[in-house]
Specification:
Strand content: 15-25%
Radius of gyration: 17 Å
Mean pLDDT: 79
Distance between the termini: 40 Å
Shape: globular
Number of helices: 5
Helix content: 25-40%
Structural class: alpha+beta
């Protein structure tokens, strides 16, 4: 479902297939026979910080204390625009863990900025891996995402926040708290520009 004119080419498709194929391997792995286990996944341009291990361990202690029905399907450990309800502060630095809200897919709200983006550093619950493949496997087509770059991070957030999808998501409530995503200066400038324009529009609407 990739239009060759939309700029979404082999790199983005390759990233999509990498995540999907990894989830499929997790779902069929003997190591994931216990569905309540979690698998840690990092992209090659993610760098963990010195405080990573104690905070992830504290997070795992919290997850293990939850009943099976309450355990999240995925935990995103470094996201852009973290949003959600505070669940717990974990680790030596009391890093906040948030539960992402459930709503409907946001195809009708493409002018807004999606929270909780990035799949650079996250954990997947073993029992949720096959469901992730099922619901995330349909790569977003251009007609569904008119007006924005339809990358897999956007698709993933849409899936996990869809009230009709049986998946839930926790996120670390501070960008870059325990790991750092490495990307080019041009992309960083674009992100800041997009957020800046949206903020100006929101302030103008509020003042009006």
């Amino acid at each position: 479902g990739i239009d060759p004119k939309d700029g979404n080419k082999t790199g983005s498709l390759g990233s999509t297939l990498a995540h999907l194929s990894l989830w499929d391997r997790i779902a069929h792995s003997d190591s994931c026979a216990d569905g309540d286990k979690y698998t840690l996944i990092l992209e090659d341009d993610e760098r963990v910080k010195k405080n990573f291990q104690p905070h992830v361990q504290a997070l795992m202690d919290h997850l293990e204390s939850l009943p099976s029905a309450k355990k999240p399907s995925a935990v995103l450990l470094n996201v852009f625009r973290p949003t959600g309800k505070l669940v717990q502060n974990v680790g030596p630095e009391q890093v906040p863990i948030l539960e992402s809200p459930k709503t409907h897919r946001r195809h009708d709200r493409l002018g807004g900025l999606r929270p909780n983006l990035w799949l650079s550093n996250y954990m997947v619950r073993c029992s949720a891996a096959s469901t992730l493949v099922k619901y995330s496997g349909a790569y977003p087509n251009v007609s569904s995402y008119t007006g924005e770059f339809p990358n897999f991070d956007v698709q993933f957030v849409d899936v996990l926040t869809d009230i009709d999808v049986p998946l839930t998501m926790y996120v670390v409530g501070e960008t870059g708290a325990i790991s750092h995503h490495v990307f080019g200066d041009t992309f960083r400038t674009q992100l800041n520009k997009v957020d800046g324009v949206a903020l100006k529009k929101a302030l103008a609407t509020k003042s009006g």
